[in-house]
Amino acid sequence: MKTQTAKEVNALSSPKEKGRDYLAFVSAGFTHFRENIDASVGEGAHIRFAGGAQYNKWFGLECYGEITPAIAPGTVLDDLKKNINQRILRSSISTRSNTYVGVVGKFSFELMRDVSFFAKVGVAKYEAHQITAELTLDDPADNVLFRYVRLVGGAEGYTPVASIGYEVPIPYRDSKKTSAEVSLTQMFDDKVRHLSLNASLKYTF
Question: Which residues of 154-192 are buried (b: 16+ CB within 10 A; e: fewer)?
């Protein structure tokens, strides 16, 4: 029985021996958001997941999906009170999370041994401002005691997106397949403009 050397085992497990010249990866983690009424983003953390391919040390492509916390109905009501010139007698408000699906290019630079700085630039499709408000307003004009109003929000579109951050291997400095990423991400479209903090665990295979 032939015994394989360590060099032979590594060759069998390398991407090129499997017929590909890139490393595939998946990641999952969370994104922390600050409340932003203009972007309809609530306060707190929500999930983020991604997958992609690393073609060399400095460049890769990543597809990701992200969900934000829903904006608090009370925050929406406070904003309506500022923008409606009539007294709100009664309200019923429901909100939903924003969702983003994007593609970014990842550009990496090794700052020191085992620590890499990276920048990601790309575009994301969003569905945002999923808010429904049913209001009863005090409307004394024309002898009307009150007026019923139903407001339905919603926006879809594309936004440029950019991130900066760093990546380190975990749980050990010589870990080859597992790493952690921490980054800041900015959305640029005026309808969803906000800054968020991301932390993810990444597995490369």
Answer: eeeeebebebebebebeeeeeeeeebbbebebebebebb
Specify the pTM: 0.83
- 21-39: pLDDT as tens digits: 889 999 999 999 999 999 9
Give the pair of three-digit tokens for residue 65: 């999906």
Q: How far is it, in rounded angstroms, from Cα 203 to Cα 205? A: 7
Taking the C-alpha atoms of residue 42 and residue 23, their distance in angstroms, rounded to an integer, is 36
Query: Which region holds residue 112: left if phi is over 0, alpha if psi is between -120 and 50, else beta?
Result: beta
Residues 118, 111: Cα–Cα separation, whole Å: 10
Angstrom distance (rounded) from CA 63 to CA 27? 10
- Residue found under tokens 């007026």: 147
